[in-house]
Amino acid sequence: MAIGSKEELAAKLNPAIGYFDPLGLGSADFWTQGNEATYGFLRQAEIKHGRVAMAAFVGFIVQSNGIHFPFPMVGGGVEQAMYAPGLTPPEQWDALPFVSKCQIIGFIGFLEWWSEFAGTHYMRGGVPGKFPEFKDIPLHSIPSLYDPAGFHKKMTPEKSEQGLLKEINNGRLAMIGIMGFLA
């Protein structure tokens, strides 16, 4: 990792606490792959789940405030109501047609599969948090999910490091926040 050791990264993320690893995961060896592979796995998991939690937190707030698509949903051959007012986000998920839920879960499954098997794996020296490009899929126009607007390419290494630190801290807070909403 470009930022340095896990102790240096922890000090940059939270100077008041520093490196805190009561379970010893930072020195673990998952699946007998070595400590570097384990650390890559844990860093990838933290970044990925932080990103999902940030999107979920914003989505929960948007849905709870009644902001919705201005057109009716169609699923399974049955047209659904444009918006069912008064439903919480979990109730809105329950109100989705089964086919729609399968499409969402299938798409997420594809993204997970693609991130594991395309490009250099994060446990084998790849960059944790960097989603592989869709360049090997013929006849597509899917932008980069890692950097769709191209901002990261233009950043200096110092700005990129600061952005990663902010993303990790915001992701940690969002994971706590969305679990608080769901509880």
Helix content: 40-55%
The largest sheet, given as strand count, sense and whether it forms a barrel, is:
2 strands, antiparallel
- General form: globular
Q: What structural class do you assign from the helix and strand content?
A: mainly alpha
Number of strands: 2
Q: Note the run of SSEs as H and E.
A: HHEEHHHH
Share in β-strands:
under 5%
- Output the number of helix runs: 6
Strand order of the largest sheet: 1-2
Q: What does the radius of gyration come to?
A: 19 Å
Question: Which parts are unreliable, with pLDDT below 50 for 5 consecutive residues or more?
Answer: none
How would you describe this structure to a colleague?
- The chain is mainly alpha-helical.
- The chain has 6 helices and 2 strands, in the order ααββαααα.
- Strand 1 (74-75) and strand 2 form a beta hairpin.
- Helix 2 crosses helix 6 (157-182).
- The relative contact order is 0.13.
Write the layout of secondary structure elements.
Elements: H1 6-13, H2 35-64, E1 74-75, E2 78-79, H3 89-95, H4 98-117, H5 151-154, H6 157-182
Antiparallel strand pairs: 1-2
